[in-house]
Amino acid sequence: MSDYDVIIGLEVHVELKTQSKLFCSCSAAFGAAPNSQTCPVCLGLPGVLPVLNQQAIELAVRSALALNCQVRPFSKFDRKQYFYPDLPKAYQISQYDQPLAEYGWVTIRGADGMKKIGIRRIHVEEDAGKLNHMGIRLGDASGSLVDLNRAGVPLIEIVSEPDLRSPEEARLYLTELRAVLSYLDVSDLRMEEGSMRCDANVSLRPRDWTGSLEDLPRVEIKNVNSIRNVQRGIEYEVERQRELLSRGERIVKETRGFDDQTGRTYSQRSKEEANDYRYFPEPDLPPLVLDPSWINALKESLPALPDAIRASLVERGIPAKDAEVLVLDKDAYHYWQEAVRDFHDERLVTNWMLSDVARLINARGESFKTAVVRPQGLVELLTLIQQGTLSGRMAKEVLEAMFETGRDAKTLVKERGLAQITDQGAIQAVVEEVLSKNPSVVQDFLSGKEKALAFLVGQVMKATRGQAKPDLVNQLLRETIARDYQNA
């Protein structure tokens, strides 16, 4: 691979979270019975006229602004013509030479530091329908059924510059892009439901190449349904092209699919060019003219976005690695925000959230948004630790019970008798008993073997069922040995 550079550009389609479709009043909700959310407009019947959805344009402009794009006050819609069974009009209303927005960027953070990835354009278009293949896999299907519920759902297509140089950078770009859009709440972003889809364009450039990137033979991997699979598909495609070039064969410019079972790409059709679609201005829609003051008002209303949140968390003392985990999961960040409003040890909240809470959430297939233990429940648990009622080990046990039962920490501690023993007299009695039963271990400690003390601490904790306060146990053991055994 030393003779080649990997060149990657991504086209990301994001369904906008509107109640109705882009050009009609049909519901845009996911999951309804096939073909139950259609009308003459989205079915493409003769004589109908599209009416533009204002909310879709607002969400598209907010997305473009958050991605540092220049929003055009003047843009227009075009007809992109092609025939496919899930496109009832035989054309898609999209934007071609005058898109909604251009010249943005996303910053990714990888092993080599920060890198800015350019966004060439963002345009608005309607979605096509969906083919449901009758079989486990497309190659085995006995037929296909057409569901047009999705036809006409509003999309934005975010087209990156070919600035990505590895499958890992592609993964980082998509992860950051999804995080930005999630804070805007412009889309569900559920790749498994198709509300965020990605096409990856992959080329290998010889190191001695002097031509334009546009002249490189480019392979497009179409409609990949998860960020992990985008990375896998690119990894396979890079290796496939490398092997072809090493044998002196040429790369065919084509569109390929990705099989997530085999991890391989497969040929679908030759790659279309813009002239194949015979674009022309949409005659049934006027140009889209936006008031600059309206654009500025939307910009002012944007929420805090990942870059600003990262900087804020690090400034507050959260380690950069932990801040990254919180930022990339909006639900986790909002969970954290709610918890630290009532519990001011932010590092302790972060540590518990990203270790034990996250582990239990993942084990139950939940998220921070749906977790049975809400931020107030975590705050109550951490308060019991801070007050000395629970040790860290005991708190872990209580947290697991909270997830299993849905009950609060105080109730569980009372019912199960899990409160930490802090009474010095009670612990002293156990300490003296443990020391009397382990004289040889006491002598080992007196001879300088610190590990012997750990054994004695363990014996006290065992005798108290783990409920004695560990630092008090340590203190009393040292004091008692110094007082009663030092000169024995």
TrEMBL record:
GO terms for biological process: glutaminyl-tRNAGln biosynthesis via transamidation; translation. PROSITE patterns: GATB. Gene3D superfamilies: 1.10.10.410. GO terms for molecular function: ATP binding; glutaminyl-tRNA synthase (glutamine-hydrolyzing) activity; transferase activity. Residues 334-481 form the Asn/Gln amidotransferase domain. It holds the Pfam family GatB_Yqey. Keywords: ATP-binding, Ligase, Nucleotide-binding, Protein biosynthesis, Transferase. The keyword Nucleotide-binding applies. It catalyses: L-glutamyl-tRNA(Gln) + L-glutamine + ATP + H2O = L-glutaminyl-tRNA(Gln) + L-glutamate + ADP + phosphate + H(+); L-aspartyl-tRNA(Asn) + L-glutamine + ATP + H2O = L-asparaginyl-tRNA(Asn) + L-glutamate + ADP + phosphate + 2 H(+). PANTHER family: GLUTAMYL-TRNA GLN AMIDOTRANSFERASE SUBUNIT B MITOCHONDRIAL AND PROKARYOTIC PET112-RELATED, GLUTAMYL-TRNA(GLN) AMIDOTRANSFERASE SUBUNIT B, MITOCHONDRIAL. HAMAP family: GatB. Heterotrimer of A, B and C subunits. Belongs to the GatB/GatE family. GatB subfamily. This is Aspartyl/glutamyl-tRNA(Asn/Gln) amidotransferase subunit B. It comes from Sulfobacillus harzensis. The gene is gatB.
